[in-house]
Amino acid sequence: MKKFIIVTVIFTIAGLITASDSFLQPKLLLHKTESQKKNSETNDPHNLSPELKKALNCKSCHSCEYPTHGNPCLLDCPRKNMISVYHSPKEGPEVVLINEMSENYSGVVFSHRLHAEMSEMTTGCEGCHHYNTTGPVLNCRSCHQNKRKRENVAIPDLKAAYHRQCLTCHKQWSYENGCNTQCHLQKGSDVDLKREQAIEKIKGRSHPLLPEPSKMIWETNYIEGKIVTFFHDEHYQVFKIKCINCHKNDNCIKCHEKKENVDFTKPVKIKKTFDDHHMPCVNCHDGNSCKKCHSESEMSPFNHGKSTGWALGNFHSSLNCADCHGNSMPYKSLDRNCISCHKNFVKGSFNHSRTGFILSEDHLEAECENCHINRDYSKPPQCSSCHDDKSFPKDLPGKRNRK
Asked: What's the pTM?
């Protein structure tokens, strides 16, 4: 689940959340201490008094020693390192009325909960709420004013901030289409009625759950192998790959057709380009080997023994892939020597029954490599590897304690 930040308060008359006030004051701002908040008028660290500026580390944002307006030498934005807290979409407002600039435009009825639910598949709440703190953040207006101060171009005004966030996903908007046809209610004597109708249309709605496929089969135009078999549940359940690893560029328009007036209430047929199909795969799989995915017939599920040459035993088959291979993708082959993973292993202390086989008293004294030649534990040992005089007993050197 992704993080979700509440930024507004209840507007008691209409029973809505409005964007004009803050929901909760945060305990900590990115650039300020508690004392700094009392002595500064804005969230811009450059407007602090000389005494307070001393408490800031300029190199946290600037790479050079003497940054200037013409050459600020800014580092990458540290948003990925910000601390935030978890909130589920249901904790936040269902509908937000954005109406700070109502003197110029009619308000926008924003389906907040629908967007929050969909954001869990993509960037998460931080896609919009980029100014994170240790608690719920201030609303947009706390940093972005209706009229931007021209001496500081780093912070856009409120109108620009709203539009930049919306247009990140809603790329079908254009100036020719007009503002009142897509987001803003058209001004007029019935604007209040239209607003209530828009609110009622949104209330109680949620995006239909997308079915999680177990297996997907595509028929392609690739001559040497037209069939591609994709085991979705393996990637998610076995390999523990997160949704965002493959679906990081997905948004509403990815599924819904790009046209002037998109009807998000109708089911859609997903259209994918060549890159749409291949890019999520080549992040982990070798993009130069088509036959790893393309074949003449449907492929079988992943089998560790067949694919790697090392069959998992009773104990290792219950582990997650990352327990042995780590969290870095793609997974790399490992040293098959037990000691490469079991670094704290003490000779003579291994409980052989964990393998599913309890050794007899005679064989408990044997060294591991006496039976497992060259420490190859991928294959069960043969009695003849030790008993070349055919004096070995007919019975197994122990008994099985599991299948």
From this structure: 0.47
* Sign of the alpha-carbon dihedral angle for 54, 58, 59, 65: negative
Closest CA to 169 of 119, 107, 203, 114: 119
Mean pLDDT of the chain: 72
Helix (H, G, I), strand (E, B) or coil at 98: strand
**Alpha-carbon span 156 to 118, nearest angstrom:** 26
8 A C-beta contact, residue 242 and residue 120: no
The structure tokens 């908007």 sit at: 173
Give the integer Cα–Cα distance in Å for 386 and 368.
12
CATH code assigned to 216-302: 3.90.10
Predicted confidence at residue 2, as pLDDT, reads 40
Q: Would you state the pLDDT for residue 231?
A: 92
Going by their DSSP bridges, the two strands 96-98 and 16-18 should be labelled as parallel
Q: Which two tokens stand for residue 215?
A: 């297996």
Q: How far is CA 312 from the centre of its chain?
A: 30
What is the spatial distance between Cα 342 and Cα 319, in angstroms, rounded to a whole number? 14
- Between CA 98 and CA 18 the distance in angstroms is 6
- Selected from 3.60.21.10, 3.40.50.2000, 3.90.10.10, 3.30.1360.70, the CATH number assigned to the domain covering 9-30+82-202 reads 3.90.10.10
Confidence bin at 295 (pLDDT 50/70/90)? very high
